[in-house]
Amino acid sequence: MKNKKVHIQEVATRDGFQNEVKFVETEDKISLINALSACGYAKVEVTSFTSPKAIPALRDAEAVMHRITRQDGVVYTVLVPNVRGAERALSCNVSEVNLVMSVSESHNRTNLRMSREQSFAQLSDVIHIVRSTPTTINVSLSTAMGCPMEGDVAVAAVLGWMQRFADMGVHGVTLCDTTGMAHPSQVRALCEAARRQFPALELALHFHNTRGLALANTLAALEVGVDRFDASLGGLGGCPYAPGATGNVCTEDLVHMLKLDGYDTGVDLAAILVASARLPGLIGHDVPSQILKAGRRSDLHPMPASASLPEQHAFSSSAG
């Protein structure tokens, strides 16, 4: 277990910012992404090439992609919904395109306004275009661990959609707990089945902390050999179709836990805490990050003066 490598994929600047009411200025996005690029991430999801009318928060996708400073060894991925989005992304020389659809029919219709088969046909067109370029292709399968409208999602259904995309030659698949319904034993079973059936696929997990189980689910996935995880700086993000949903698993909370358990994420925790501290000023509200609020376990504090006892009243105790 000691020093085992874990790859962290930052999604705040896409999955997080797309949900914010306040527009984060282009220069601020570029500055933040440049700072994150130097923090040791395996991958940064920069933006989304969706229609600016659909997601106005990311209407500056081309400007951001053209102007960020790219670090060697970092994969710069972007979400693309269709052929037009793929063409825009490819013109910006992205490292990877991320395609999204839901495993459950209800969520796909609610979120994407089309059936799963319609989504698959649309994404197949994207794959045919991107496959002839150096850009790699990842598919994110939403509601892979539960749907707020349908309940449990069968492992066989998840594997079936993975198979259809694997047959088309995608590089990786991300299994998404979109509405925070996953629990550890479920995660272990799904990940074991996925790794067994698709050993050649780059498998990643995308957890939300809606019910406080994101870190526990990460540990469950690690137990069965998954080593790649999405996370969002400050815990930004969420799903509009999950009542009461909070954001994605918080990057600094995740990295802090993994470091304590002896995993090598390659991510500079001190540097991402500095980056996370920028977020409230950019988005206009506080963020869920626990480590940003409480500090690292190793951050010690002076004894308060009020706790000092007069010399004559001092006593020793072995209690506790």
**N-to-C span:** 31 Å
Helix content: 25-40%
CATH topology: TIM Barrel
Sketch the major β-sheet: 8 strands, parallel
Proper CATH architecture: Alpha-Beta Barrel
Q: Mind telling me the CATH superfamily name?
A: Aldolase class I
Number of strands: 8
Strand order of the largest sheet: 7-6-5-4-3-2-1-8
Mean pLDDT: 93
- What is the radius of gyration? 21 Å
* Overall spatial form: globular
Strand content: 5-15%
Tell me the count of domains.
Answer: 1
The SSE order reads EHHEHEHEHHEHEHEHEHHHH
Task: Describe the overall structure.
The protein contains 13 helices and eight strands. By secondary structure, it is α/β, with parallel strands linked by helices. It has one domain: Aldolase class I (TIM Barrel). An eight-stranded parallel β-sheet has the order 7-6-5-4-3-2-1-8. Helix 7 links the parallel strand 5 (136-142) and strand 6 (172-177). Helix 2 packs across helix 3 (61-67), helix 4 (83-90) packs parallel to helix 6 (116-130) and helix 10 (251-260) packs antiparallel against helix 11 (269-276). The chain is globular.
Please outline the helices and strands:
Elements: E1 7-10, H1 12-16, H2 26-37, E2 43-48, H3 61-67, E3 75-79, H4 83-90, E4 96-102, H5 105-112, H6 116-130, E5 136-142, H7 155-166, E6 172-177, H8 184-197, E7 202-207, H9 214-223, E8 228-231, H10 251-260, H11 269-276, H12 279-283, H13 290-294
Parallel strand pairs: 1-2, 1-8, 2-3, 3-4, 4-5, 5-6, 6-7
Helix pairs in contact: 2-3, 4-6, 8-9, 10-11
